Input
Amino acid sequence: MEIQINFRIAAEQDLDKIVEMLADDVLGSKRERYEQPLPDSYIKAFQTITSDPNNELVVAYQGDEIIGVQQITFTPYITHQGGWRATIEGVRTASSSRSKGIGTELIKWGINRATERGCHIVQLTTDKERPDALRFYEKLGFKATHEGLKLKL
Amino acid sequence: MEIQINFRIAAEQDLDKIVEMLADDVLGSKRERYEQPLPDSYIKAFQTITSDPNNELVVAYQGDEIIGVQQITFTPYITHQGGWRATIEGVRTASSSRSKGIGTELIKWGINRATERGCHIVQLTTDKERPDALRFYEKLGFKATHEGLKLKL
Output
């Protein structure tokens, strides 16, 4: 059976499900706060993202059900002769919908969107504690040419 | 002798020197085009960056001389409870000014700027072909917790 997955820019009523998905994960559960009412910081971030033409919060859905999310940021850089890049972050599929190829479709959609926006690179970082995620992205053509460094403030 | 380094947002007259610095490097020489007149793509990117409140192209200078550059991008994310992050890219010091601690001051300036902007993480990726750069960032407190993946379009 072919699964029909659709994609669209997230609406505010999707935010509860988005945060639920982000928190429903070994690493996500340590850093997200999925509670009712949803912490204000998520609502503010959602509004900032949706009012910024260089940020897109994208959901995958089937019927009425949100089954995946990713955030794509488009950045104009001076490097690479002044090229635009797309950065993908916060990729998650609903736990009830995993291993059905939804993540693959989500990232492929992101790659197409980056092409439409004239980007020359799609980039992302993945936690070294997620070896399966690394293999997943490598299968999609990404190369782990860089170290991803973080400094917490 | 203490070296006094100053920092400011780049102006269009700095762009020639910025591109010269970016191109003057083993990896940069393969992907940049430093020629006169400067390719239009750099000028367009410069104008897009400077008109975007979430992007800052920063130069280090001494007197009239530009001796370093970095681009800082501020991004509102849904993850981490809707936190802002700063991403540093395109860090370079002038070859005549290397090994004088200018890179360190440049990144420290970036970290302070990220703090002022309310970011909770400063992040960057560094090419695995630059082991010295990795050590440089680790000394500044960055942790290489992530793989940095790129997909060329």
